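Ligand: NAP. Inputs:
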Amino acid sequence: MPATIIDGKALARQIREEIRRDTEIFLREHGRPPGLAVILVRDDPASKTYVRNKGRACDEVGFFSRQEHLPATTPQKDLIALVESFNRDASIDGILVQHPMPKHIDEATIFRTIESQKDVDGFHPLNVGNLCIGQECLISCTPLGVIEMLRRYEVPLLGKRAVIAGRSNIVGKPMIQLLLREHATVTVCHSRTVDLPGECRNADVLIVAIGKPEFVRADSIKPGATVIDVGTNFIERDGKNVQVGDVAFEEAKEIAAAISPSPGGVGPMTITMLLSNTLQAARWHVK
Ligand code: NAP
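Predicted complex:
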């Protein structure tokens, strides 16, 4: 039987509507909307589109938003000064500096400069640490989106074997903590894992975030597993530039019980979790 498609786009629409309603209440109670500042330090069109989309998403749910486009040559100290000005700005609840940043900028320093309660990307060491020890914190948007997809599709996690392919700071590592929090038994794979397909075949829930187009094939999937494909890759197919995930979707959907596509899966959830984190931060700031 073909798999249930975990429709990230529809879920994202539903959650954004919930956020829009909560924003109306927030505005009534506190006299201002939640505010998000997005800083872009580069000139490429793809990043500009990301930032523009974040601005649009804010408008949709009724947030106040600021977008700052800085040239790629901006000195680190100027970027730090801008972040610090948003740290002090009471109309701003969330600050996001779009990455990757130019080479002369130390991303870790920038992430540490963002006030931890405005760090809606969840990259500040305080937020990363608090996630590990189970304290309230802001959590990286992509893994947060994945766990929300699993929760809303009622995928059982307690006592289940979860396998994560990829151990990046923004996806794989926070994903470990979120799955542990749900009492899954978690295995993490990476480029030195000896038998990736074998590890994946053990998974009741398989999360793939490796950045390799259609790398995980049907023979790496346990029949009846749930598969979440975080991968966002662009390849040439039939003369067109198309987006594909890290999982060979067409064949995987014949084996899995449920699977998220790419595009239309994790991507729309990530930006939605950014809105959710900003609302969460705003609630802390008015307390
Ligand atoms: P990343 O920082 O490049 O990390 C890739 C991870 O995959 C690393 O841990 C790497 O292992 C592992 N890996 C690479 N090749 C492997 C292989 N052959 N076998 C096993 N593991 C392998 O990537 P990322 O930022 O986590 O992103 C991963 C994918 O998700 C990309 O396609 C990205 O575009 C996508 N993504 C999507 C969203 C979204 O919102 N939809 C958000 C973030 C990322 P090592 O650690 O050993 O190098």
